[in-house]
Amino acid sequence: MEGFDRYLIIHSAFGEAVNRALAYAFDEALTERNGVSNVWADGYRILIELSEMLSRDTVESISKELFSMSEHTIAATFHDYVQRRFPFAYSMKFIAQRFGAIPRGMFLNDRTLFELSARFESTPIHEETLREAELTKVDPVTAKKVVRSIAEGAIAVVPVLSEESPTPQGFYMLNKLVEVPEMVAAESTRKDNLSRMKAFLLAQRVELLCLQCGSAMAEERVEGLPEFPKCDSCGSGLLALKSKIRPDVPQILQKRKSMRNLTKEEIAALSRARRAADLVLSYGKRAVSALLTWGVGPQTAAGILAKMHTQDEDFYADLLKAKLKYIQTRPFWD
Which residue in 3, 111, 220, 312 has the fewest CB atoms around it within 10 Å? Predict the structure, then answer.
């Protein structure tokens, strides 16, 4: 397992179906704690993009966490990922037609396709779609065997940190998948990138802090938030993402409520939190997604949200452009 910058490259020549199954399980396991931005897999490697720079200790701790999972945990984690995020609505259409649940040759728009998973949840159509996907796209059975071999010591896991530059094998994966400008890729690839980004952002767990009364709301996935979330205690919509503000902002709020003087640093922290909260107040759940995007701060998010996109695809396309611009210009930032 090679760490470089924000990227984990797992060199695992198990084939694309096995690596894809492992990648999905690892994505689910790491998303809530480490903030996974993206995951790719080919026949020889798995690439995981995290939201923070990696250190030697982090690479070692993540390596231990992932490869100490039992076969049962791998299977359960993979199952959770597939049930929540696997993009199989298009395949489900043809299986539903085979079952006679919808007419053959019927045209379904994107919204109807998106609703198929919910419509046929807990039905044989859903189970058959999942079974077919596991037969053709992923290989969770062999993935569990790999985990067993690691537990038995037949396969060794070696965590390393590449500080100056990635290894030649790691560079190949990064150059192939990260440095290529995603927005000028083929249309099918571009749509897949946008769908993956949307799924990632909606799956994130967030904890919102009310800047009006100082109360923290219960943690919730973005997809489960109301279109315009409100504080459970006072009903205010002035909510900031706790993960995106200074950890001491709740204490600063209490200090201000008790009429004590704030330092310049505390005023600046509160001001930044307020700018982000104003966006959530004005734009609701979309503002939460924007602020969760890697490299998008309140100022950039405000510019994107002000466009008032009528189509989700256009909104996420602008978020992706902003993310790519940040990645490209970040080496020149202080």
Answer: 111
Q: Are residues 6 and 97 in the same domain?
A: yes
Burial readout 176-203 (b: 16 or more C-beta within 10 A, e: otherwise) = ebbeeebeeeeeeebeebbbbbbebbbb
- Print burial letters for 233-249: b (CB count within 10 Å at least 16), e (below 16): eeeebbbbbbbbbbeeb
pLDDT tens, position by position, 47-84:
998 878 889 999 999 999 999 888 888 888 877 777 66
Range of the domain at 64: 2-179
Q: Is residue 197 part of a domain?
A: no
| Cβ proximity of 7 and 125 under 8 Å | no
Q: Are residues 148 and 273 in the same domain?
A: no
pLDDT of residue 275: 92
Instruction: Supply 169's token pair.
Output: 């094998």
Give the CA distances from residue 74 to residues 82, 213, 324, in Å, rounded to whole numbers and listed in that order. 12, 42, 32
Confidence of residue 182 (pLDDT cuts 50, 70, 90): very low
Burial class (CB in 10 A: 0-12, 13-18, 19+), 226: exposed
Over the stretch 28-53, which tens digit does the pLDDT of each residue have? Answer: 888 766 677 778 888 999 999 887 88
Last residue of a domain, one of 179, 212, 243: 179
What is the number of domains present in the chain? 2
Query: Is 228 found in the same domain as 170?
Result: no
